Structure formats: C-alpha cells, structure tokens
Please model this.
Amino acid sequence: MATADASVALITGGGSGIGRGFALEMAKLNHIVIVSDVNEDSAESVAEEIRAGSGTALSRQFDVRDSAAAAALVDELLARYGRIDALFANAGVVGPADFWSIEPSDWDALLGINVKGVALISQLVAEQMKRQRRGRIIITASYNGVRVAEHVIPYRVSKAGVLMFSKCLALVMAPYGVTVNAICPGVTPTPLQLEYAEALAETRGITLDEYLKERRSRIPMGEMTTIEDLNALARFLVSDEARIITGQAIAVDGGVMASS
Ligand SMILES: NC(=O)c1ccc[n+]([C@@H]2O[C@H](COP(=O)([O-])OP(=O)(O)OC[C@H]3O[C@@H](n4cnc5c(N)ncnc54)[C@H](O)[C@@H]3O)[C@@H](O)[C@H]2O)c1
Model:
C-alpha cells in the first residue's frame, strides 16, 4: 500500500501495451501511479487493475498533443501530491508502412504524438523536477530511431527525433540530479506492434503469422521482447542505483539496435 509520501509516477499512453506494463510495475514499487491515455476507458481500466491489487492509482484522459491539458494535468498532480518522481513519456503511434501511401496528416500525427507529445509533458515535468532536484524521465523510443529502412519512415523519423530530444534534455537536467533516458523496446507484441506487423505483411503480400516468424528470425537472439523485459530496465532506471546514468538510449531488443 502506498504511503502519503510515496513516490509519484506519471505514465502517458498507460492504457495499453508497454505503458500499461510500466504503470503496473511502478505500482508494484509502491508508487502512486497516474495512468494517462487519450483513451479514457483503457486508462481507467489499468488504474482499476492497480487499485484492485491494493496499489494507489488514478486515471486521466490526456492527449499528449494538447499543451493546455498537459499543463492542467501537471498542476493538478502538484496540487495533490506536491511532487512528481518519475515520468514515463511513452504514448506513441505507428504510421504507414509504405512510403507512397504517406498522407500529409500522417506527419502531423507521428511528429505531433511521438515527438511534440513527448517534449510538451517532459518540459513541464522537468520544470518541477528541477525544483525538486530529483527525478527520472524515461522516454519510450525505438530501435527504429537509428535503423534505416524503406518502410514506416515517419515513425522512424519521429523516434530519431525523440532520441535526440531525450539526450538534449539529459544535459539540461544533469545539473539538477535528474536523469533522462530512452528505453528502446525491441519487437514487443502489443496492439501497436501488431498493427505495424499487419501493415508490413500486407505490403509484402504475406500473412501476419508468416511476417512474425520471419521477423523473429531477423532478431539476433531470435526472440521478441516481453513487457517483463522492459519493466526490468524501468525498475532499474527509477532506482537509486541508476542515479548517474543519463542521456542513454538503452535497447531491450535481443540485439536488433546493435545490428543496425
Ligand atoms: N510494441 C513495440 O514493438 C514497440 C517497439 C518499439 C517502440 N515502441 C514504442 O512503445 C510505446 C508504446 O507502444 P505500445 O507498443 O505499448 O503501443 P499500444 O498501442 O499498445 O499503446 C500505446 C498507447 O498510447 C496511447 N496513445 C496514442 N495516442 C495518444 C495520444 N495522442 N495521447 C495519449 N495517449 C495516446 C494509446 O491509446 C495506447 O493506449 C510507443 O511509443 C511505441 O512507439 C513499441
């Protein structure tokens, strides 16, 4: 059960997949968890799952593109708890696999959510962490931010952008004892990954199962990443043991990023 002075963790995109995993993990560490997501129902269902396990959580509908909503959310959390100890800037979307089918609006969505959406909430939370002289910012990036290929180009560009943002922010926050790191998940079977896989399978004219089998064979260790694999790193990055690790892009991907 969380105590009155328990650490406070804010997760964006916490209603599904990797963000849900981070939310449940922070609850296990006795953090007060704020599960935010553009999808109100999924955020509330994860918060409810945490409360059912005797954790402390609340959900907030929050679109990371909305700067006014970001400011209101941070103000509310500071009024309630007076602190934010960990931010998981995790919400993200994937875009068209095929270069020729990219629409102008895809750039708005990919850069708006995956880059601007990370930067807006990170800046606001960083301002508080600077005052606290303590905090952890963990940004979900991707091996796609360093790996060059001819498909999902707006997604790759967005993840390259957010990797640069996280390293720059790490330097800004270093004098205040706040660390900023990017977790780069490998192929993790979440709704987003399956949407991505389906689009690529369709582009290549193969089935989803055929694509996933072939995809696994291209992972140096031959295995997909699990939510538990990502949580192990998240747990470490929020711990005191990781106090001096900052500005890193850490892959949890069976060797995919190393082979880029
Ligand atoms: N799954 C993978 O294989 C993989 C690999 C590398 C990186 N990632 C990254 O991990 C992060 C999480 O992805 P996931 O696989 O868990 O996907 P997911 O689709 O399961 O979860 C993403 C969540 O983000 C939310 N979201 C989408 N747009 C939003 C917005 N505008 N504002 C707030 N929330 C929004 C969705 O509602 C959803 O709950 C993303 O940044 C993604 O790019 C995933």
